[in-house]
Design a protein that fits this description.
- This protein has helices spanning 42-52, 67-74, 84-87, 109-119, 137-146; strands at 26-30, 58-62, 78-80, 94-100, 120-131, 150-158, 172-180.
- It has 190 residues and is an alpha/beta fold.
Length: 190
């Protein structure tokens, strides 16, 4: 075994995406694009439900299309399904809220995220699905932070997965921003 005495430090990161918010991990999910008029594909719904909840936990569905509802039922979760838009979100706190963006609400983005914060269990998440290159994610992140939610993860959904040792351009169709209510319930911006 050789002793490698020539060790180099990693470069110092430069710049902030959003001032005061540490960098978050970016994950690539190889899932198909949603059909026209839907917020997500069936595979995206399944991944969100299985990655962000456990059996029996409550999910609030604010997306267009039946994909999340199918995933909730198949995974033995409970949900305030799409009727939540008309009837309210209920009184029981949820583990996950899934919404498209922009929301069809007269409330401002900060007010919407405040309502999400109030409807979450500590450690719960809000998954915001954005059409890639349609909305600046920074605007969504800032509004969520002002409402007391922390930016946890950025997921990019692409039709074609990256291949090892191949120069592949990803065909990204959806950005998913995961915001969370810290386990202490304090959030990040209050």
């Amino acid at each position: 075994m050789t002793d490698n005495t020539n060790r180099y430090s990693a470069p110092v990161p430069v710049g902030d995406v959003v001032p005061g918010i540490p960098p978050v991990p970016i994950t690539v999910w190889p899932v198909p694009a949603p059909r026209k008029g839907d917020t997500m594909s069936n595979q995206m719904g399944v991944r969100l439900v299985h990655n962000l909840t456990h059996p029996g936990e409550l999910i609030i569905d604010l997306v267009d299309g039946p994909q999340l509802a199918r995933a909730v039922i198949a995974a033995s979760r409970r949900s305030h399904l799409q009727a939540a838009r008309q009837t309210g979100w209920g009184r029981e706190p949820a583990r996950l809220i899934v919404t498209g963006w922009p929301v069809d609400s007269p409330a401002s983005a900060v007010e919407f995220f405040g309502r999400c914060r109030d409807a979450l269990l500590p450690g719960g998440c809000v998954a915001v699905l954005l059409g890639h290159d349609v909305t600046a994610p920074v605007d969504v992140i800032i509004a969520a932070k002002e409402a007391g939610l922390n930016y946890l993860q950025h997921i990019v959904a692409a039709d074609q997965p990256p291949r090892p040792r191949m120069q592949t351009l990803l065909d990204i169709h959806t950005d998913v921003l995961i915001m969370t209510l810290s386990a202490a319930g304090s959030g990040g911006g209050r």
